Amino acid sequence: MDAFYSLAVLACPVGMGLMMWFMMKGNRQQSGAQAPQDKTAGFAGFDKDPRQPEIDALRNEIAGLRAKVDSRPEAPAQERTR
Q1: Contact, 73 vs 65, CB < 8 A?
Q2: Which sequence ranges are marked TM in the entry (predicted)?
Q3: Could you give the number of structural domains in the chain?
Q4: Residue 65 resides in a domain
């Protein structure tokens, strides 16, 4: 009966270790065959990332907001009453 409990306690860590080993083994075989990917490649048939115009618009909006904040005069420091 003690052997059964020992086997049950060791089954999980040993199984997890074997799973990790097989997964790492599979990743090494695939990584050698793949060509390096371009940042803009791999978007379902698009030559470039279709999200790029939206990203550019958001960056422009952020730049405008930063310029607006930077152009405001500094408010006087307020003392904390707590």
Answers
A1: no
A2: 6-24
A3: 1
A4: no
